Amino acid sequence: MSTHDIRTTPERQPRPRPAHPAAVAQVLEARSFTEGEPRTVLIRAEPRWSGPERLQLSRGRTARVAAAVSPLALLDVITTGRATAGGDEEGSDRTEILAVLTDAEEADLGPGLLARVYRNRVYPIEPWAVVRRIFGARDIDPRLTAEAWAAEALIDAAGQENWPKSPGTVLARDTALSRLSAARLSTTDHRLGADSLDAHALFTWSLASGAAERLASLRAQERQGITAWLTDPERVGTRAAQTLTALLALFDGGSGADAVPVGLVCAALWAPNAPASADRARGRAELLFGPHRLDDDTLAAFGAEAEAYLRVLLAGWSRTVAAEDEPTRAGPDPLALLARADTLAQTLGAEKAAAQSYLLEAGLQARYAEVARALARSVPGSPTAVPDPRRVRELDRAADALFGHVLASQDRHRNTRTRIRMARRLLSWLATPAPGPFGTAAEAVQQHIDDHSWADLAVGWIDDGDHAHPELPAAFGTLSAAVRARRHIVDERFAVRLAEETRSGSVPEKFLVVEDFARRVLAPVVKPSRAKTGTAPLLFVVLDGASAAVTAGLADELRRQSWAEYDPVTDSDGVQHRRSMLAALPTLTKVSRGSLFAGELLEIEQQEERRRFGAHAFWRGADVRLFHKADLRGPSGHGLGSELAEALVDPAVHVAVVVNTIDDRLGEDRAVAHWKLEELLGVTDLLSLARTGGRALVITSDHGHILDHGTAKQPVPDALSARHRTGTTAAGPGELVLTGRRVVADDNRITALWDTSQRYGNRQAGYHGGIALAEVAIPVLAFVPHGAPAPKGWRELGPQRPHWWDSEAPGDGTNSARPNAPSAAMRGPRKTARKAAQKAVEKQLTTEQKTGQGALLSFDALDAAPDTAETTAAPAPIAISRAGRLVEALRASDIMAAQIEALPRPEQFDTIAAAVGALVDAHGVLPVTVLAERAGKRAPRAAGFAATLQRALNYDQADVLILTDNGRSLRLDIALLKRQFGIEEAAK
């Protein structure tokens, strides 16, 4: 016996672990056999084998593996084994080795049994040699061998993993431990990647079923080793190490499955702005981490990383669209995690801290509450009062805080965000002076199209109701009441003027009325045939019952879909703007739509509309066809009726279509204040075919409507509709008598309601037939697809939103009758923004000196003054608009001065300022011709002026101002303008 086999009796060893095939092969490969030596090799391991029956070794050898659970079983295996040197069993292989796995120690086997095995001993497994063999490595990183626990863990885990080999390399510590950690922590439902064991991956793992059990199943030494490696700050960085330390500590405390919700609560408790009351809640939260005592920095980092993880989940959740056959989205549910975090916050007594969170639902609700309270405080107390600017600024700050909350950007809060923005716009509208008596009914109708209808659109949003927070409905209701009180005054003044003009028969010559619309607006477009002139055919859409508020929203949607808006009135020399017209009276479909198609004041049925409309002499032989609701419905698989679809693809046919969706909905229970194009029957298909054919598009209505928001029924015996009657009894409050040729009724006389809070008929979603502005004013929209030629005489329009719609502070302008008219600060050399602002300040100071009341006094108090409340509007707060601030900053810029000096053709700064201001007011984009007009240039000079502007603004060849839409529009990059001219701070 050689000296290296002489050994002392070893101490008893711990119970061995299962043997990996690589471990068995490693032991056998190191053995060499001489003639006559036993080929049975004992290997100390758990006596259980799940590997292959035979192992292939080097030099053409094979080994059969068996297990013996006791010395007696071992004797039986050796006795019956065929791989001995002296075996004579038929078919035995004298070169095959028998490897027997046993957990018995040599002292338990006795010399007689040991004499029958190789070298009379039990061979231990050499762990690191086995690891080297498993990975096919040439050597092992010394830092890995220093981890004494790792070898056995790697061998054990290798039995369940198919790790790739790295022949001839050094097995690095991080490579081995990353694969080990991923293998040990992965669950049946969630597999971890060895290359992505970061905080976010482990947050996801913590949510998987069985994660806690998987971690608990590891031996203490292995668990400690994996934890130490995962949380090594030199490897992962301080913040990640702190995060993972806290996360794994939660598993020790039994709260591992709540790692993400606990982290979200920790973020609130350890936030810099956490309330003083958070101390007790912090103490309760620390108990969740079991025996570990974590410092404040660690818990703050853990909370911050949990918030970052949830933001990633929310972003993915918003982008993911569940398949039709999948009821839920894949992956963790961020909303469920947030709900759990809110529950934990309540359990820990952390409600006040959670209310300051920009991620937890409690923080969102707290911000909603602040917005609701600030909004309620901002609403003026009487119809002629304006909002207190200090209160409005408080609302702005509250709204900014709300919109900064992560959950506020979610789709489920989209409508609430819109309602809050609409509420803010309504405060800006209330800050404009209340209109006085109208000069003409036509003036009132046009002002309704330009201004009041936008307020109706906004108030329709808030009237829809909102339950994102219990206090919002009351705040919205208060604002709605204030807006309706102001609109009540407007409607009454309009109705008085309309009754006077209807009685006298006077209508401004150039103003559109429904009976002249086809002749004045449509005939110039359809008059020439396409075959002779090459002009585009017309699509004329009548949205039955659509109010100006509805069409304002639809027009914005059309602009977003690359339709360019035009003024279609060709017989007017005034400034182009979105047009309006007067409905026939009463404002009923048979009367006003009948008059529209007949070209004269008549009450006719649908069939007569078609006959009369197609037979007008002013078409001059053009093929004009009218289609009604039944023609919009096509057979299965077709969007439109076949006759209508064929007409739309025929360039020689001018098409008119009546869409009844809005008017039909008025007869139902629920009011709809705002519509989308896709919600109107057939309109999406109509627009698609119109765009393909390059058709000019004209959209109008036959009358408007009012919506029911708590109307009162008036019992009258002679009602003819929900809003008008014959007038057999005297007119009461909210009514007026109308007589004259434009009243299509017996004796040309009716009594109609102007008060929108009253009705004659049963309650329904909405009504028409009366004389409120929203019923009488008919909007006129004209569009051409971008890139298509416009009809002769049509003039392109810029944005038609009123100035207060996008203003930054209430009272920063006047109640302009035409929203696309240049502001006082943008009218070229006559008046700069600085001079206009200075004049306004001087005017307010004068007012203050006369009244003794300063700007800091509540506007409600000003309104209450008996000698001025009814005759003089309270002075609006002075605020320079965003465009004005930017222009003044440009004026002070040395770079701007140098750019103007270098122009090949001299140009005044005020002209450039007017153009810049117009672009800013239009959100950066305007047609070239419209921009030139805003800057005081004639249309033939538009292209040259655009080139001059580009030379002036594109400093250092930056694309501050570029041409778009095939050279038809200019787009201003406002942020780049500020950076290039060094006016970032000045323009704030």
Layout: helices, strands, pairs:
Layout: H1 21-29, E1 40-44, E2 54-56, E3 62-68, H2 71-80, E4 97-102, H3 106-114, E5 122-123, H4 127-135, E6 139-140, H5 142-145, H6 150-158, E7 170-171, H7 173-185, H8 199-206, H9 211-216, H10 220-230, H11 233-236, H12 238-252, H13 259-269, H14 278-286, H15 296-319, H16 334-348, H17 351-355, H18 361-378, H19 389-403, H20 414-430, H21 441-463, H22 472-504, E8 512-513, H23 517-526, H24 530-533, E9 538-543, H25 548-560, E10 563-567, E11 579-582, H26 589-598, H27 606-614, E12 623-627, H28 629-632, H29 642-648, E13 653-659, H30 661-666, H31 683-692, E14 696-700, E15 706-707, E16 712-713, E17 724-725, E18 735-739, E19 749-753, E20 758-759, E21 766-767, H32 773-776, E22 777-785, E23 795-796, H33 833-851, H34 859-864, H35 882-891, H36 894-901, H37 909-921, E24 925-927, H38 928-934, H39 942-953, E25 961-964, E26 969-972, H40 974-980
Parallel strand pairs: 1-4, 1-5, 3-4, 6-7, 8-11, 9-13, 9-14, 12-13, 16-20
Antiparallel strand pairs: 2-3, 10-22, 10-23, 11-22, 14-22, 15-21, 17-19, 18-19, 24-26, 25-26
Helix pairs in contact: 4-6, 6-7, 8-12, 12-15, 13-15, 13-16, 18-19, 18-22, 19-20, 20-21, 20-22, 21-22, 21-25, 26-27, 35-37, 38-39
